[in-house]
Design goal:
The structure holds two protein chains of two kinds.
Chain A: H1 22-34, E1 39-43, E2 50-53, H2 58-67, E3 75-84, E4 89-97, H3 105-108, E5 118-125, E6 130-132, H4 141-152, E7 155-157, E8 185-186, E9 189-190
Chain B: H1 6-11, H2 26-42, E1 49-53, E2 65-71, E3 74-81, H3 89-93, H4 98-106, H5 113-128, H6 134-162, H7 167-187, E4 196-197, E5 200-201, H8 207-230, H9 235-241, H10 249-255, H11 260-264, H12 271-274, H13 301-324, E6 344-352, E7 355-363, E8 371-375, H14 377-383, H15 385-388, H16 394-404, H17 408-412
Antiparallel strand pairs in B: 1-2, 2-3, 4-5, 6-7, 7-8
Classes of the chains: A alpha/beta, B mainly alpha.
Chain lengths: 197, 413
């Protein structure tokens, strides 16, 4: 394979990609119709199907998915951040679920036993990780965004002020970044990192 | 002790309460009352006060601090502050091998430890493509449902305690202790079990233990009407909770509220039935939701309490069906000493006693996860009080927080 080297990490192997996931396929079709060009990459099936959008079009895509009566993704279940220092990027994942649409029996019998969800993911540069907020679309995203900021240092823009939620306001750094170092002490209390780290 | 002791002092003339308890004659007291009324209207300064409820408040179920701005007895605005018992569950998960992470999962929701383990093992198994023996799946369902019964009994009893009813709490602790003994005999731990393992469960259910379990189920079933007499059908309890802290369907979904609180808001959804995991699709049970038909309105504290009471009954049904269909066979798959799932990611959700626990995991082929992210249901459930708690009375805020049944260990993880 002699593909041009770009900065995206190698795609994970896909040992169990079966048929495309119907929920994600519907979301992909909707975004391609209503927001052409918003989806940069996608994984149609397997254990964890996803759609990648640019940070600038995240809110547009999220709003379309939420308001579509077919998908009715009325709940933002989880927002997670992942640090990828090799590529100099950070990633935010939005797992969206629907409580209005119950999966049909055929879907539930699929061998992968996937739960129906749509995963939107956004990649941002690691040195200036900024993602627009979705708090006005799903109010519950507020605390998830605060936690992602707290532990990974990803800034969410366009919302009320971001504060740490779990750690103290003066805690040094963001511990879930892969290059985070244990501080020697915190207010005079020595910190002993666990063995093997 | 002379007959004219302390008691006499309060009653006699010149004692602690001169003129008797109710002020003696009616006329002078009435005049004084009118004067006071004028005083309030004219000169009494009123202002809003900001103060802390918690973190050591008995009605916040752990170390939850809520800053409330009050106008008299009414809460005008509130902001919950969490993080007091953050224990880095995700950071630890990214630092230790999969096997070693499991005991930490118990400590997220320490009242639903079996259910936490169940979800964590499911996530790792899907990541690594591990098949679980059928008998182990039944064992998992049995212990998870026993855990749910215990958790709901605790929630219901403690909720009564929050509202000033001490007796139901003690009654329900009798059955809870018995259930904790049951899980103790199985796993060796009272609250934190480490019983569900990757690829199965730690040890098989012995015939003696199953007899013990059946006796426990019968005891709980016999006691349920008693609990309901004390709380659910108690007029004082109904007056205290009906119509209080209403979380409607739209608010619940926007905030990501899950579990009994979501079902009380009339969302007919239970992961065990709608996206069945393990062997839940083999059992027949109802999902209580909406209005109880007893008191109150949809989405209020009373319906949340009622959903939990009903779910105990449904869990009893599930355990009995699992016992009837318990297959023979091994309970633990053969696994390598060092588990290295192939590169990939999973997202798994499961119905915990408090709502939907979910985990997102990334593997890069090492024996340690690259990223583990857990969704604690209480984390989303408690956030909703920011909106719903506005405009309630302080006493009703206690009723609201209690009815959400949060565990701070899971909020802070």
């Amino acid at each position: 394979m002699s593909e041009p080297k770009d900065k995206t990490p190698p795609a994970p192997p896909r040992p169990d990609v079966g048929e495309p996931d119907p929920v994600t396929a519907r979301a992909l079709a909707l975004l391609e119709r209503r927001a052409p060009g918003a989806v940069l990459a996608h994984e149609p099936g397997g254990r964890h199907p996803w759609l990648r959008v640019g940070a600038d079009r995240l809110r547009e895509a999220a709003r379309l998915l939420r308001d579509d009566p077919d998908l009715a993704l009325d709940c933002c279940h989880l927002i997670s951040g992942v640090d990828w220092p090799e590529t100099g990027e950070m990633e935010v994942l939005y797992h969206l679920v629907s409580y209005a649409r119950r999966p049909d029996a055929a879907y539930r019998r699929r061998p992968l036993k996937n739960d129906p969800f749509v995963c939107l993911r956004v990649r941002v540069p690691r040195d200036a990780p900024e993602v627009p907020t979705v708090m006005d679309l799903w109010t519950g995203a507020d605390w998830h965004e605060r936690e992602t900021y707290d532990l990974l240092g990803i800034r969410f823009t366009g919302r009320k002020e971001l504060h740490r939620i779990l750690l103290p306001e003066d805690w040094p750094g963001h511990p879930l970044r892969k290059d985070w170092e244990y501080p020697a002490d915190y207010h005079g209390v020595p910190i002993i990192p666990p063995e093997g780290l | 002790m002379s007959p004219g002791g302390v008691r006499g002092a309060a009653q006699g003339p010149g004692g602690l309460v001169p003129g008797g308890l109710y002020g003696g004659g009616g006329e002078p007291a009435a005049v004084e009352f009118h004067e006071r009324q004028e005083l309030v209207g004219r000169d009494l300064r009123t202002e809003e006060m900001v103060f802390n409820m918690g973190p050591q408040h008995p009605a916040t179920h752990g170390v939850l601090r809520v800053v409330i701005r009050t106008d008299g007895e009414v809460v005008r605005a509130l902001q919950p502050h969490v993080g007091n018992i953050h224990r880095c569950c995700e950071k630890i998960g990214e630092s230790v091998p999969y096997y070693q992470w499991l005991p930490y999962v118990d400590r997220m929701d320490y009242l639903g430890a079996m259910c936490n383990e169940h979800l964590a093992c499911m996530a790792i198994e899907r990541l690594a493509g591990i098949e679980v023996p059928e008998r182990a799946e039944y064992c998992r369902v049995i212990v998870a449902e026993v855990q749910r019964i215990l958790s709901h009994i605790f929630a219901v009893g403690v909720y009564g305690l929050d509202l000033g009813a001490f007796t139901p709490f003690l009654h329900q602790f009798r059955e809870r202790e018995r259930g904790l003994d049951l899980l103790d005999h199985l796993s060796g731990g009272r609250l934190l079990y480490h019983y569900v393992r990757i690829g199965g469960v730690k040890r098989d259910l012995s015939p003696e233990w199953l007899d013990e379990l059946r006796a426990f189920l019968d005891a709980v079933e016999r006691r349920l009407p008693e609990y309901n007499t004390l709380l659910l059908h108690n007029r004082i309890f109904q007056d205290r909770t009906a119509g209080v802290g209403v979380i409607d369907r739209d608010t619940a979904l926007r905030w990501g509220v899950t579990g009994p609180s979501l079902r009380a808001a009339d969302v007919d959804w239970d992961c065990r039935r709608d996206v069945p995991y393990s062997v839940y699709d083999r059992f027949d049970f109802e999902v209580p939701h909406g209005h109880s038909g007893i008191a109150g309105v949809v989405g209020d504290c009373f319906q949340r309490h009622w959903v939990r009471v009903r779910e105990v009954e449904e869990s009893l049904k599930i355990v009995r069906q699992a016992l009837a269909g318990l297959p023979e066979g091994p309970v633990l798959a053969n696994l390598p000493a060092s588990l290295r799932p192939p590169e990939g990611e999973v997202y798994v959700r499961a119905e915990n006693p408090r709502g939907e626990l979910a985990a997102y995991m990334v593997s890069r082929g090492k024996d340690t996860a690259y990223r583990i992210r857990c969704r604690g249901p209480s984390f989303s459930n408690i956030a909703v009080i920011t909106e719903v708690g506005e405009g309630t009375l302080i006493a009703d805020l206690v009723a609201l927080i209690g009815s959400l049944d949060i565990v701070l260990g899971e909020v802070d993880r």
